[in-house]
Write a structure and sequence with these properties.
The protein is of the alpha/beta class and 421 residues long. It has 14 helices and twelve strands. The strands form two sheets. It has a seven-stranded mixed beta sheet with strand order 9-8-7-6-10-11-12, with helices on both faces. The chain binds nicotinamide-adenine-dinucleotide (NAD).
Protein backbone atom coordinates (compact mmCIF):
# COMPACT_ATOMS: atom_id res chain seq x y z
CA UNK A 1 0.00 0.00 0.00
CA UNK A 2 1.44 3.39 -0.96
CA UNK A 3 0.97 6.81 0.59
CA UNK A 4 -0.69 8.00 -2.64
CA UNK A 5 -3.75 5.83 -1.98
CA UNK A 6 -6.77 7.63 -0.61
CA UNK A 7 -9.01 6.18 2.11
CA UNK A 8 -11.74 5.33 -0.42
CA UNK A 9 -9.32 3.50 -2.73
CA UNK A 10 -7.91 1.19 -0.07
CA UNK A 11 -9.56 -2.23 -0.30
CA UNK A 12 -10.54 -3.42 3.22
CA UNK A 13 -10.35 -7.07 2.15
CA UNK A 14 -6.72 -6.63 1.13
CA UNK A 15 -6.08 -4.96 4.49
CA UNK A 16 -7.77 -7.83 6.36
CA UNK A 17 -5.78 -10.46 4.46
CA UNK A 18 -2.56 -8.51 4.97
CA UNK A 19 -3.19 -8.35 8.74
CA UNK A 20 -3.92 -12.10 8.78
CA UNK A 21 -0.79 -12.89 6.73
CA UNK A 22 1.40 -10.98 9.17
CA UNK A 23 0.01 -12.97 12.11
CA UNK A 24 0.03 -16.30 10.26
CA UNK A 25 3.67 -15.73 9.31
CA UNK A 26 4.66 -14.96 12.87
CA UNK A 27 2.77 -18.03 14.15
CA UNK A 28 4.38 -20.21 11.42
CA UNK A 29 0.88 -21.46 10.68
CA UNK A 30 0.60 -24.68 8.67
CA UNK A 31 0.35 -23.61 4.98
CA UNK A 32 -2.89 -25.59 4.38
CA UNK A 33 -4.56 -24.07 7.43
CA UNK A 34 -3.36 -20.69 6.30
CA UNK A 35 -4.99 -21.14 2.89
CA UNK A 36 -8.27 -22.14 4.59
CA UNK A 37 -8.40 -19.23 7.06
CA UNK A 38 -7.38 -16.67 4.42
CA UNK A 39 -10.69 -17.03 2.53
CA UNK A 40 -14.36 -16.79 3.58
CA UNK A 41 -16.29 -20.03 3.89
CA UNK A 42 -19.43 -18.70 2.17
CA UNK A 43 -20.34 -15.54 0.23
CA UNK A 44 -23.92 -14.85 -0.80
CA UNK A 45 -24.86 -11.98 -3.15
CA UNK A 46 -28.54 -11.13 -3.58
CA UNK A 47 -30.32 -8.70 -5.91
CA UNK A 48 -33.84 -8.13 -4.67
CA UNK A 49 -36.82 -5.94 -5.55
CA UNK A 50 -38.52 -3.44 -3.26
CA UNK A 51 -41.73 -1.56 -4.03
CA UNK A 52 -41.12 2.14 -3.36
CA UNK A 53 -43.69 4.65 -2.10
CA UNK A 54 -44.06 6.15 -5.60
CA UNK A 55 -45.15 2.75 -6.96
CA UNK A 56 -41.86 2.02 -8.75
CA UNK A 57 -39.87 -1.17 -8.20
CA UNK A 58 -36.18 -0.74 -7.32
CA UNK A 59 -33.63 -3.55 -7.22
CA UNK A 60 -31.09 -3.48 -4.37
CA UNK A 61 -27.93 -5.53 -3.92
CA UNK A 62 -26.98 -7.11 -0.60
CA UNK A 63 -24.48 -9.57 0.80
CA UNK A 64 -24.10 -12.06 3.63
CA UNK A 65 -20.65 -13.54 4.16
CA UNK A 66 -19.61 -16.25 6.61
CA UNK A 67 -15.86 -16.15 7.03
CA UNK A 68 -15.54 -19.00 9.51
CA UNK A 69 -17.95 -21.21 11.46
CA UNK A 70 -15.39 -23.49 13.12
CA UNK A 71 -15.94 -22.33 16.71
CA UNK A 72 -19.70 -21.80 16.47
CA UNK A 73 -22.42 -20.06 14.42
CA UNK A 74 -21.39 -17.11 12.25
CA UNK A 75 -21.96 -13.78 14.02
CA UNK A 76 -21.86 -10.26 12.70
CA UNK A 77 -23.79 -7.12 11.92
CA UNK A 78 -25.77 -5.88 8.94
CA UNK A 79 -24.66 -2.58 7.41
CA UNK A 80 -26.84 -0.30 5.27
CA UNK A 81 -24.61 2.14 3.38
CA UNK A 82 -24.29 3.44 -0.15
CA UNK A 83 -20.60 2.42 -0.30
CA UNK A 84 -21.00 -1.22 0.83
CA UNK A 85 -19.02 -3.67 -1.34
CA UNK A 86 -18.57 -7.43 -1.22
CA UNK A 87 -14.90 -6.93 -0.32
CA UNK A 88 -15.85 -4.68 2.60
CA UNK A 89 -18.31 -7.29 3.90
CA UNK A 90 -15.68 -10.04 3.50
CA UNK A 91 -13.20 -8.00 5.54
CA UNK A 92 -15.77 -7.26 8.24
CA UNK A 93 -16.68 -10.98 8.39
CA UNK A 94 -13.04 -12.01 8.80
CA UNK A 95 -12.53 -9.42 11.54
CA UNK A 96 -15.59 -10.88 13.33
CA UNK A 97 -13.93 -14.32 13.37
CA UNK A 98 -10.85 -12.93 15.12
CA UNK A 99 -12.93 -10.70 17.41
CA UNK A 100 -15.04 -13.58 18.73
CA UNK A 101 -11.84 -15.57 19.30
CA UNK A 102 -10.09 -12.70 21.16
CA UNK A 103 -12.91 -12.54 23.72
CA UNK A 104 -13.29 -16.36 23.60
CA UNK A 105 -17.01 -16.49 22.82
CA UNK A 106 -18.24 -19.54 20.85
CA UNK A 107 -18.94 -17.90 17.51
CA UNK A 108 -17.44 -17.72 14.05
CA UNK A 109 -17.41 -14.59 11.93
CA UNK A 110 -20.02 -13.24 9.54
CA UNK A 111 -21.22 -9.91 8.19
CA UNK A 112 -23.89 -8.54 5.90
CA UNK A 113 -24.65 -5.37 4.04
CA UNK A 114 -26.97 -3.72 1.59
CA UNK A 115 -25.92 -1.02 -0.90
CA UNK A 116 -28.38 1.71 0.08
CA UNK A 117 -28.44 5.14 1.66
CA UNK A 118 -31.20 4.49 4.21
CA UNK A 119 -31.58 8.23 4.86
CA UNK A 120 -33.20 8.44 1.41
CA UNK A 121 -35.86 5.81 2.24
CA UNK A 122 -39.17 6.29 4.03
CA UNK A 123 -39.81 4.12 7.10
CA UNK A 124 -42.13 1.95 5.02
CA UNK A 125 -39.48 1.45 2.32
CA UNK A 126 -36.85 0.68 4.96
CA UNK A 127 -39.10 -1.99 6.46
CA UNK A 128 -39.87 -3.51 3.04
CA UNK A 129 -36.16 -3.57 2.14
CA UNK A 130 -35.27 -5.19 5.49
CA UNK A 131 -37.97 -7.86 5.24
CA UNK A 132 -37.09 -8.83 1.68
CA UNK A 133 -33.33 -8.84 2.38
CA UNK A 134 -33.94 -11.07 5.43
CA UNK A 135 -35.93 -13.46 3.24
CA UNK A 136 -33.14 -13.55 0.63
CA UNK A 137 -30.42 -14.40 3.18
CA UNK A 138 -32.60 -16.91 5.03
CA UNK A 139 -30.72 -19.72 3.29
CA UNK A 140 -27.83 -18.85 5.62
CA UNK A 141 -29.17 -17.32 8.84
CA UNK A 142 -30.69 -19.03 11.88
CA UNK A 143 -30.10 -19.15 15.65
CA UNK A 144 -27.74 -22.14 15.35
CA UNK A 145 -26.18 -21.08 12.04
CA UNK A 146 -25.67 -17.37 11.55
CA UNK A 147 -26.95 -14.56 13.77
CA UNK A 148 -27.04 -10.96 12.44
CA UNK A 149 -26.88 -7.81 14.61
CA UNK A 150 -26.90 -4.01 14.10
CA UNK A 151 -24.03 -2.17 12.42
CA UNK A 152 -23.75 1.16 10.61
CA UNK A 153 -27.24 2.59 9.90
CA UNK A 154 -29.13 -0.38 11.34
CA UNK A 155 -30.68 -0.49 14.80
CA UNK A 156 -33.05 -2.33 17.17
CA UNK A 157 -36.05 -1.59 14.92
CA UNK A 158 -34.33 -3.16 11.90
CA UNK A 159 -33.46 -6.19 14.05
CA UNK A 160 -37.12 -6.46 15.17
CA UNK A 161 -38.25 -6.58 11.50
CA UNK A 162 -35.60 -9.21 10.70
CA UNK A 163 -36.66 -11.34 13.67
CA UNK A 164 -40.34 -11.01 12.76
CA UNK A 165 -39.74 -11.92 9.11
CA UNK A 166 -37.70 -15.02 10.00
CA UNK A 167 -40.26 -16.03 12.66
CA UNK A 168 -43.19 -15.66 10.24
CA UNK A 169 -41.50 -18.10 7.86
CA UNK A 170 -40.79 -20.59 10.65
CA UNK A 171 -44.33 -20.31 12.04
CA UNK A 172 -43.19 -19.50 15.58
CA UNK A 173 -41.18 -16.78 17.35
CA UNK A 174 -37.40 -17.21 17.09
CA UNK A 175 -35.80 -14.44 19.18
CA UNK A 176 -32.30 -15.98 18.89
CA UNK A 177 -32.01 -15.39 15.13
CA UNK A 178 -30.75 -11.82 15.60
CA UNK A 179 -29.30 -9.78 18.47
CA UNK A 180 -29.52 -6.10 19.23
CA UNK A 181 -33.32 -6.39 19.39
CA UNK A 182 -35.56 -4.12 21.45
CA UNK A 183 -35.79 -5.25 25.11
CA UNK A 184 -39.51 -6.00 24.60
CA UNK A 185 -38.59 -8.69 22.02
CA UNK A 186 -35.87 -10.49 23.95
CA UNK A 187 -33.14 -7.87 23.60
CA UNK A 188 -30.51 -7.65 26.33
CA UNK A 189 -30.11 -4.89 28.85
CA UNK A 190 -26.94 -2.99 28.04
CA UNK A 191 -26.69 -4.07 24.38
CA UNK A 192 -27.08 -0.55 22.95
CA UNK A 193 -24.19 0.74 25.07
CA UNK A 194 -22.10 -2.46 24.90
CA UNK A 195 -19.69 -1.58 22.07
CA UNK A 196 -18.82 1.78 23.61
CA UNK A 197 -18.75 0.39 27.16
CA UNK A 198 -16.33 -2.36 26.11
CA UNK A 199 -14.11 0.22 24.39
CA UNK A 200 -14.07 2.37 27.51
CA UNK A 201 -13.19 -0.66 29.71
CA UNK A 202 -10.19 -1.13 27.37
CA UNK A 203 -9.23 2.55 27.61
CA UNK A 204 -9.37 2.38 31.42
CA UNK A 205 -7.07 -0.68 31.36
CA UNK A 206 -4.69 0.98 28.91
CA UNK A 207 -4.57 4.17 30.97
CA UNK A 208 -3.78 2.10 34.04
CA UNK A 209 -0.88 0.29 32.32
CA UNK A 210 0.48 3.49 30.75
CA UNK A 211 0.09 5.70 33.82
CA UNK A 212 -2.39 8.06 32.12
CA UNK A 213 -4.76 10.02 34.35
CA UNK A 214 -8.17 9.88 32.62
CA UNK A 215 -9.37 12.75 34.80
CA UNK A 216 -6.90 15.02 33.00
CA UNK A 217 -7.23 13.50 29.51
CA UNK A 218 -8.64 15.13 26.38
CA UNK A 219 -10.51 12.89 23.96
CA UNK A 220 -11.48 13.20 20.27
CA UNK A 221 -14.18 10.97 18.74
CA UNK A 222 -14.70 10.41 15.01
CA UNK A 223 -18.26 9.21 14.26
CA UNK A 224 -21.17 10.16 16.50
CA UNK A 225 -23.57 7.23 16.10
CA UNK A 226 -24.15 4.28 18.39
CA UNK A 227 -20.51 3.52 19.17
CA UNK A 228 -19.13 7.09 19.06
CA UNK A 229 -21.74 9.11 20.92
CA UNK A 230 -22.03 6.58 23.74
CA UNK A 231 -18.24 6.26 23.99
CA UNK A 232 -18.08 10.06 24.33
CA UNK A 233 -20.60 9.97 27.21
CA UNK A 234 -18.88 7.08 28.99
CA UNK A 235 -15.37 8.53 28.74
CA UNK A 236 -16.78 11.84 30.01
CA UNK A 237 -18.11 9.84 32.99
CA UNK A 238 -14.50 8.72 33.62
CA UNK A 239 -13.62 12.39 34.08
CA UNK A 240 -12.07 13.01 30.65
CA UNK A 241 -12.86 16.04 28.58
CA UNK A 242 -14.25 15.45 25.06
CA UNK A 243 -12.68 18.19 22.92
CA UNK A 244 -13.74 17.18 19.37
CA UNK A 245 -16.37 14.98 17.70
CA UNK A 246 -17.56 14.44 14.13
CA UNK A 247 -20.20 12.76 12.03
CA UNK A 248 -20.56 12.25 8.27
CA UNK A 249 -21.29 15.97 7.82
CA UNK A 250 -18.10 17.22 9.56
CA UNK A 251 -16.71 17.90 13.00
CA UNK A 252 -16.65 20.36 15.90
CA UNK A 253 -13.80 21.36 18.22
CA UNK A 254 -13.70 23.04 21.62
CA UNK A 255 -10.29 22.78 23.32
CA UNK A 256 -11.79 23.33 26.78
CA UNK A 257 -14.30 20.49 26.34
CA UNK A 258 -17.77 19.92 24.87
CA UNK A 259 -20.96 19.27 26.84
CA UNK A 260 -21.55 15.76 25.43
CA UNK A 261 -25.22 15.52 26.43
CA UNK A 262 -25.96 18.84 24.75
CA UNK A 263 -24.08 17.78 21.58
CA UNK A 264 -26.21 14.60 21.47
CA UNK A 265 -29.37 16.70 21.81
CA UNK A 266 -28.07 19.15 19.17
CA UNK A 267 -27.42 16.34 16.69
CA UNK A 268 -30.88 14.92 17.31
CA UNK A 269 -32.45 18.29 16.59
CA UNK A 270 -30.26 19.44 13.67
CA UNK A 271 -29.12 16.13 12.14
CA UNK A 272 -25.46 17.20 12.45
CA UNK A 273 -22.99 18.02 15.21
CA UNK A 274 -21.82 21.08 13.26
CA UNK A 275 -22.86 24.54 14.38
CA UNK A 276 -22.91 23.49 18.05
CA UNK A 277 -22.81 26.72 20.09
CA UNK A 278 -19.39 27.53 21.58
CA UNK A 279 -17.50 25.19 19.27
CA UNK A 280 -15.62 25.67 16.00
CA UNK A 281 -16.63 23.70 12.91
CA UNK A 282 -13.74 21.59 11.59
CA UNK A 283 -13.40 18.89 8.94
CA UNK A 284 -13.57 15.21 9.63
CA UNK A 285 -9.87 14.92 8.89
CA UNK A 286 -9.11 17.67 11.44
CA UNK A 287 -10.84 15.72 14.22
CA UNK A 288 -8.30 12.92 13.86
CA UNK A 289 -5.41 15.36 14.20
CA UNK A 290 -6.60 17.69 17.00
CA UNK A 291 -4.49 18.09 20.10
CA UNK A 292 -5.75 15.34 22.42
CA UNK A 293 -4.56 12.38 24.52
CA UNK A 294 -7.02 9.73 23.36
CA UNK A 295 -8.53 9.30 19.89
CA UNK A 296 -11.60 7.11 19.35
CA UNK A 297 -12.31 6.37 15.67
CA UNK A 298 -15.97 5.24 15.63
CA UNK A 299 -17.02 5.68 11.99
CA UNK A 300 -15.75 3.68 9.01
CA UNK A 301 -12.67 1.92 7.60
CA UNK A 302 -9.37 3.42 6.38
CA UNK A 303 -9.54 6.72 8.24
CA UNK A 304 -6.00 6.55 9.66
CA UNK A 305 -3.57 5.93 6.79
CA UNK A 306 0.08 6.56 6.00
CA UNK A 307 -1.01 10.08 4.98
CA UNK A 308 -2.17 11.25 8.40
CA UNK A 309 -0.67 8.75 10.90
CA UNK A 310 2.32 11.02 11.40
CA UNK A 311 0.08 13.98 12.31
CA UNK A 312 -1.99 12.28 14.99
CA UNK A 313 -1.33 13.82 18.41
CA UNK A 314 -3.11 11.25 20.59
CA UNK A 315 -1.06 8.92 22.77
CA UNK A 316 -3.79 6.26 22.79
CA UNK A 317 -6.04 5.23 19.88
CA UNK A 318 -9.08 3.12 20.78
CA UNK A 319 -10.63 1.56 17.66
CA UNK A 320 -14.38 1.51 18.33
CA UNK A 321 -14.83 1.28 14.55
CA UNK A 322 -13.85 -1.75 12.48
CA UNK A 323 -10.78 -1.34 10.31
CA UNK A 324 -10.14 2.39 10.82
CA UNK A 325 -6.34 2.00 10.54
CA UNK A 326 -4.35 0.62 7.59
CA UNK A 327 -1.29 -1.64 8.10
CA UNK A 328 1.05 1.14 6.88
CA UNK A 329 -0.40 3.52 9.42
CA UNK A 330 -0.07 0.85 12.13
CA UNK A 331 3.67 0.74 11.55
CA UNK A 332 4.04 4.52 11.69
CA UNK A 333 1.98 4.75 14.89
CA UNK A 334 3.93 1.93 16.53
CA UNK A 335 7.25 3.60 15.66
CA UNK A 336 5.94 6.86 17.14
CA UNK A 337 5.02 5.07 20.38
CA UNK A 338 1.26 5.50 20.03
CA UNK A 339 -0.60 2.82 22.00
CA UNK A 340 -3.35 1.45 19.74
CA UNK A 341 -6.15 -0.77 21.08
CA UNK A 342 -7.14 -2.76 17.96
CA UNK A 343 -10.72 -3.09 16.72
CA UNK A 344 -10.92 -6.86 17.23
CA UNK A 345 -10.34 -6.23 20.94
CA UNK A 346 -11.58 -2.67 21.47
CA UNK A 347 -15.08 -2.98 19.97
CA UNK A 348 -15.68 -6.61 21.01
CA UNK A 349 -18.09 -5.47 23.74
CA UNK A 350 -20.87 -5.33 21.14
CA UNK A 351 -20.60 -8.94 20.08
CA UNK A 352 -20.01 -10.02 23.68
CA UNK A 353 -23.35 -8.61 24.84
CA UNK A 354 -24.92 -9.96 21.62
CA UNK A 355 -23.70 -13.35 22.81
CA UNK A 356 -25.30 -12.68 26.23
CA UNK A 357 -28.55 -11.75 24.46
CA UNK A 358 -28.51 -14.98 22.45
CA UNK A 359 -27.81 -17.05 25.60
CA UNK A 360 -30.72 -15.32 27.37
CA UNK A 361 -33.00 -15.91 24.36
CA UNK A 362 -32.13 -19.60 24.11
CA UNK A 363 -32.73 -19.99 27.87
CA UNK A 364 -35.86 -17.78 27.91
CA UNK A 365 -34.07 -15.72 30.55
CA UNK A 366 -33.51 -12.00 31.21
CA UNK A 367 -30.51 -10.63 33.10
CA UNK A 368 -30.27 -7.27 34.87
CA UNK A 369 -28.06 -4.53 33.43
CA UNK A 370 -25.79 -4.87 36.47
CA UNK A 371 -25.17 -8.54 35.67
CA UNK A 372 -24.64 -7.82 31.95
CA UNK A 373 -22.13 -5.04 32.61
CA UNK A 374 -20.25 -7.07 35.25
CA UNK A 375 -19.91 -10.05 32.88
CA UNK A 376 -18.90 -7.73 30.03
CA UNK A 377 -16.23 -6.08 32.17
CA UNK A 378 -14.79 -9.45 33.22
CA UNK A 379 -14.49 -10.60 29.58
CA UNK A 380 -13.09 -7.31 28.26
CA UNK A 381 -10.52 -6.94 31.04
CA UNK A 382 -9.39 -10.56 30.62
CA UNK A 383 -9.07 -10.16 26.83
CA UNK A 384 -7.18 -6.88 27.25
CA UNK A 385 -4.79 -8.43 29.79
CA UNK A 386 -4.16 -11.52 27.65
CA UNK A 387 -3.44 -9.33 24.63
CA UNK A 388 -1.22 -6.97 26.61
CA UNK A 389 0.79 -9.90 28.02
CA UNK A 390 1.42 -11.27 24.52
CA UNK A 391 2.40 -7.79 23.29
CA UNK A 392 5.01 -7.55 26.07
CA UNK A 393 6.27 -11.13 25.71
CA UNK A 394 6.55 -11.07 21.92
CA UNK A 395 7.56 -7.39 21.72
CA UNK A 396 4.81 -6.63 19.18
CA UNK A 397 2.08 -4.00 19.01
CA UNK A 398 -1.39 -4.66 20.42
CA UNK A 399 -2.90 -5.44 16.99
CA UNK A 400 -0.35 -8.16 16.29
CA UNK A 401 -0.79 -9.49 19.85
CA UNK A 402 -4.59 -9.68 19.44
CA UNK A 403 -4.15 -11.44 16.08
CA UNK A 404 -1.66 -13.93 17.54
CA UNK A 405 -4.18 -14.77 20.29
CA UNK A 406 -7.18 -14.98 17.97
CA UNK A 407 -5.67 -16.74 14.96
CA UNK A 408 -4.06 -19.35 17.22
CA UNK A 409 -7.43 -20.06 18.88
CA UNK A 410 -9.21 -20.45 15.54
CA UNK A 411 -6.32 -22.50 14.10
CA UNK A 412 -6.36 -24.85 17.13
CA UNK A 413 -10.13 -25.37 16.82
CA UNK A 414 -9.87 -25.94 13.06
CA UNK A 415 -7.05 -28.46 13.27
CA UNK A 416 -8.69 -30.34 16.16
CA UNK A 417 -11.82 -30.76 14.03
CA UNK A 418 -9.73 -32.07 11.15
CA UNK A 419 -10.37 -31.82 7.45
CA UNK A 420 -13.70 -33.16 6.13
CA UNK A 421 -14.07 -35.60 4.36
P1 LIG B 1 -23.93 4.28 13.38
O1 LIG B 1 -24.62 4.20 12.09
O2 LIG B 1 -24.73 4.32 14.62
O3 LIG B 1 -22.94 5.54 13.41
C1 LIG B 1 -21.98 5.80 12.43
C2 LIG B 1 -21.51 7.22 12.63
O4 LIG B 1 -20.40 7.48 11.79
C3 LIG B 1 -22.56 8.27 12.28
O5 LIG B 1 -22.51 9.30 13.26
C4 LIG B 1 -22.10 8.81 10.93
O6 LIG B 1 -22.53 10.12 10.71
C5 LIG B 1 -20.62 8.73 11.12
N1 LIG B 1 -19.85 8.74 9.90
C6 LIG B 1 -20.09 8.10 8.73
N2 LIG B 1 -19.15 8.39 7.85
C7 LIG B 1 -18.28 9.21 8.47
C8 LIG B 1 -17.08 9.84 8.10
N3 LIG B 1 -16.56 9.69 6.88
N4 LIG B 1 -16.46 10.59 9.02
C9 LIG B 1 -16.96 10.76 10.26
N5 LIG B 1 -18.08 10.19 10.66
C10 LIG B 1 -18.72 9.43 9.78
O7 LIG B 1 -22.90 3.03 13.40
P2 LIG B 1 -22.19 2.34 14.64
O8 LIG B 1 -22.95 1.12 14.96
O9 LIG B 1 -21.87 3.34 15.69
O10 LIG B 1 -20.84 1.85 13.93
C11 LIG B 1 -19.68 2.67 13.85
C12 LIG B 1 -18.46 1.78 13.75
O11 LIG B 1 -18.43 0.90 14.88
C13 LIG B 1 -18.44 0.87 12.51
O12 LIG B 1 -17.11 0.67 12.11
C14 LIG B 1 -19.00 -0.43 13.05
O13 LIG B 1 -18.64 -1.55 12.27
C15 LIG B 1 -18.36 -0.43 14.43
N6 LIG B 1 -18.99 -1.33 15.38
C16 LIG B 1 -20.29 -1.17 15.75
C17 LIG B 1 -20.85 -2.06 16.65
C18 LIG B 1 -22.27 -1.93 17.15
O14 LIG B 1 -22.63 -2.70 18.04
N7 LIG B 1 -23.06 -1.02 16.66
C19 LIG B 1 -20.08 -3.10 17.17
C20 LIG B 1 -18.75 -3.23 16.79
C21 LIG B 1 -18.21 -2.32 15.90
Amino acid sequence: MTTEQTAASINPWQVAQQQFDLAAGRLSLDPGLRRVLREPRRELTVHFPVKMDDGSVQVFTGYRVQHNVGRGPAKGGIRYHQDVTLDEVKALAMWMTWKCAVVAIPYGGGKGGVIVDPKKLSLKELEALTRRFTTEIEVLIGPERDIPAPDVNTNAQVMAWMMDTYSMHQGYTVPGVVTGKPISLGGSEGRTEATARGAVYCIVEAADHLGIDLGRSRVAVQGFGNAGSIAASLIRDEGSSVVAVSDSTGGIHRPTGLDVDRVIAWKKEHGTVQGFPGSTDVTNADVLEVDCDILIPAALENQITARNAGSIKARVIAEAANGPTTPDADEILHERGVFLIPDILCNAGGVTVSYFEWVQDLNRDHWSETIVNAKLKEIMVRAFDETYRIARQEEVNMRMAAYLLAVQRVADATSMRGLYP
